[in-house]
Amino acid sequence: MSNLPPELKEKLEAQISHSEHPREQVINIMYALQKHYGYLSDEAVRQAATLLDMNPLEIEELATFYDFIYRQPVGKFVIHVCDGLVCWMFHEGSVFDYLCKKLGVCAGEVTADGLFTVLPTACLGYCDHAPAMLINGVFYGSLTPEKIDDILEKLRREFCDLIICR
Amino acid sequence: MAEQVLLLNRQTDRPLSFDEYRKSGGYEALMATLGSRTPAEVRQIVLDSGLRGRGGAGFPTGRKWSFIGKEHPRYLVPNTDEMEPGTFKDRVLVNVNPHLVLEGIILSAYAISAAKGIFFIRPSYEMDAELIERELAVAREARLLGNNILGSDFSFDLLVHRSAGRYICGEATAQVNAIMGRRPHPNKEVHMTDEGLWGKPTIVNNVETLACVPHILQKGPEWFKALARSHGGAGTKLYCVSGRVTRPGCYELPIGTPLCEIIAEAGGLSPGSELKAFLPGGASTSFMPKKFLEVEMDFEPLKATGNRLGTGAIIVFDQNTCLVGATLNLINYFARESCGFCTPCREGLPFIRDLLRRLENGEGKEEFIPMLKQMAHHMSKAYCAFAPGAASPLLGLLNHFEAEIQEHISQRQCPLKSLE
Questions:
Q1: What is the rounded distance in angstroms from the CA atom of residue B145 to the CA atom of residue A42?
Q2: A89 contacts in B (CB within 8 Å)?
Q3: N or C: which end of chain A has fewer CB within 10 A?
Q4: How near does any CA of chain B get to the CA of A114, in Å?
Q5: Confidence (pTM)
């Protein structure tokens, strides 16, 4: 646990010991480590296993199961583009393609400035504002290329408090 | 406007506060119940009301509760996973009236004598998870949650479980595995009502279902039944309407309202759009053609047509949407979301996806149609309800829109693309 700051380590240990069933905390622990490292690194997988007294393989099988746990480095802003049916009807894939083209990345890659990663995501539940995307916990709907440009520009310029997902 | 029950006093830009909810009679059902009714009486009232689960399966809620095992502690898991494509009613409900949801949870916990609740919520709804946590603290402060609620001998508390996102987590047994930090595969070997969360009696209910409970207890089962439009139905329903309509959104209407009236409520078809098809209840229901416009949107009337009400999430398609392409989108979704546990689902869905992709790309052949039919029927051999659900839109396409598949084969391309 050499790399984990003592205060974070203590906080996570307390969270686990206060839980009636420590294993119920596994997703919260993965989220916390992901936030610390920027993604769920190999080191983080080992740390989660040690903290929870689980096998690293048990952490791995959870980490790779879930959409919002990133096992590879991601940008500061992870853009989850809805590829649900209703969004598809309105943009037929072009929001995703537009973002990738605009940012010069393929799915899952990080832009050179370290800011953005684009990922396709299961229906976000924002179908009344299709097409939609989710960036670090915030919904953006009724997207057009112009609107997307504005959102990216705003994220580049303004400080944005990271909410979840990393 | 139809009588609003769950979305009463809806504000467009903010949730109703604790005080606002109290002023309109909120938590009175809880106060009246804790002092005067036994859990068994509450279960009976809910059974008599005819309330059926709003998460998709439509199982009678009172009956589900009646199976609760003898052991303690018991758990209640309010399900806000809501990952069925097209569905966003639970997000709207939690955002309009968080305390109605909480009161429903507390009363339902009382009905099954649960000591603890785990509010299961998907990561895309983080804002709503935070809202619920804030309002939970308010309710706890008012002694509506925690030890000896309102001075009674009933104690119950609620925690929020943040999921990390996967469709199968909406399935009750998978959800319980997810909470326990196990890989969220469905588990058909155990009865949740006896051996659910941590091996104890557990009930998983959709939050829309739970939100009906305070009203049922306050106004009675007969009142609840009388809300319905359909014969034998009960209550109102939160219908989500999306796709080619003028005002997509979540509308509370009597359960059993005919589809055409729900579409009218959403402002009718978008300008220039003609109705081609619709999905009545999310992605795991079957495409229906225009001739079903009058169908009453309730469990039994849809079952009579060979379809399902599902979540009541209506997706409207017009003449410009290719239904082969739409089915391909859905099968692609299901193939990705499959947990991979059983073979028919893990291997079958990518096979179907491949056939549909070739059809959509103009590489389709006649023999694909019987192959698709056979594969769709094989999905019933899967371990859980996921794969049969995934096969539903495909069966709708095959049953009602085979001519559109044929056009893809004869024109060697998507007929809508040839018009561009």
A1: 40
A2: 243-244, 317, 321, 326
A3: N
A4: 23
A5: 0.95
